[in-house]
Structures are given as structure tokens and as C-alpha cells.
């Protein structure tokens, strides 16, 4: 849901301080997954932010994380925050409404603004604030967003035809620095949720990724443990090869 938030001033406050407070509030919302990345703050008669919410009620206080609560309290001393829905943001996907998840997949790509966690039951992204934080002693999802930014940067360099060995290997190899960072997050999320969280690997169509003929199907060999993966159909157009032991998945083809 694409929305605007008007910040209507209640009391006199220096412009620089007002701006800093609003930016801090928006940043805390993003780090908790209550707004998606790529938002704008506009200064007109008053300050207005243009944001995308994963769910229509994502801006409600009941979803606030520790940092959002703190920043909202500070901000509300000086501003009334008025949310107005403007329409559907077509750069974002509809979000998962499932109460529980049988399994989750972790994946992203260069221009992805959505959550990196996909519900395998409905095939839609899961708003971050609905999930546990996959790191100890942290109160927001910045660790997930740093990985997403790293992945997007690597993917963009590769897609824009730099095509060098480094960016290729970072995306494809199960034990590259980029994929190790992501797999640690997926493992922690899986432990906290008590359901499998598969880390999705890119396939480089034959260079290093192995497959085996099983009947009519070409099934991937897991690069972590060298066993034949399991073909799973999560829903009509959502099929993957997975290794439960290593927590990895590939597109099925
Ligand atoms: Zn779902
Ligand atoms: Zn494996």
C-alpha cells in the first residue's frame, strides 16, 4: 500500500531538528519492516513522507519495535502524524497473510524492495515485523537488510554485464562470503521459528552446479553435502529442489 504521512507541527521546533527526528523515525520503521525501502521525505508547507506499507495496518503502533516506539514517542511531542493511503505500489508484491508457515525461502534480486523471506505456503513475501529477529542482542532487522543490500549490489554488477568471476561466484557458490552471510541469517531464522528456512542459490546452468537425471526430471545435487536434492511443489507455479540438511534451495528446472 503506497501512502503519504503528513507531519503536522504542534509546537515550534528548529527545522534541522525536525528533519533529523523524522528521518530517524522513518529509518526505524524501515529497519523493523513496517515500511519498505525507497521512501521519500518532501518539505513543502509541512513535511510529508511517501512510503510503501507491506500491509494496510503496518503503521499501527501495535507493530512497533523497540526503536520505532522510542522514535515515535519523541516525534509525537512535536508532530501529529496523519497517514493517507494513495494506492497500490506496483513495484511491491502482495504480502503473506498466513498465520503459520510450513517453510520459508530466503531470496532477493537487484531491484527487490520487498522482504527477503517468502512464505512457501502462499508464495508471497512475509513482512519482517511478523517474524523473529534472526540475531542475538539486536532489536531490528538491519542484519537482514545489510545482506539484502550486499546481494543487490552483487546482482546488479553481474547483470550489468561486468560478468567477472568474483560477482558470479559470490551469487552461485554455496560457501561464498555473501552466501555464508545469508545462510547464517536463514539458519538463525529457522531455529527461532521452528520451521525450515531455505536459502535460495542461483544456478549458473552447468558450470559448477551439478544435476542428476531422476526419471524424466533433472534434479540438482546439493553443493553442501553432494546428495540428490528433493523436488518440492509448494504451490502451482512454485517448485524447488531443496536439501533439508543444508537448508538450500534451487529453482526446479
Ligand atoms: Zn503465506
Ligand atoms: Zn545438502
Could you please describe the fold and organization of this structure?
- The protein has 253 residues and is of the alpha+beta class.
- It has two domains: 2-87, 2-Layer Sandwich (Alpha-Beta Plaits); 104-251, no CATH class.
- 29% of the residues lie in helices and 24% in strands.
- It has helices spanning 15-31, 66-76, 142-162, 165-172, 177-193; strands at 2-9, 40-43, 47-52, 79-87, 104-106, 117-119, 197-200, 211-214, 217-220, 230-235, 238-243, 248-251.
- The strands form three sheets. A six-stranded mixed sheet has the order 6-5-7-12-11-10. It has a four-stranded antiparallel sheet with strand order 2-3-1-4, covered by helices on one side. A two-stranded antiparallel ribbon has the order 8-9.
- A hairpin with a 2-residue loop joins strand 8 (211-214) and strand 9.
- Helix 1 (15-31) runs antiparallel to helix 2, helix 3 (142-162) packs across helix 4 and helix 3 (142-162) runs antiparallel to helix 5.
- The radius of gyration is 20 Å and the shape is elongated.
- The model has no long low-confidence stretch (mean pLDDT 93).
Largest sheet: 6 strands, mixed
The counted number of beta strands is 12
The average pLDDT is 93
Q: Determine the structural class based on helices, strands and strand pairing.
A: alpha+beta
Number of domain modules: 2
Low-confidence stretches: none
Q: How are helices and strands ordered from N to C? A: EHEEHEEEHHHEEEEEE
Q: So what's the overall shape?
A: elongated
Strand order of the largest sheet: 6-5-7-12-11-10
Please compute the radius of gyration using only Cα atoms. 20 Å
Bound molecules: zinc ion
Q: Give the CA-CA distance, first to last residue.
A: 33 Å
Provide the helix percentage: 25-40%
The amount of beta strand, in percent, is: 15-25%
Q: Count of helices?
A: 5
Multimeric organization: single chain
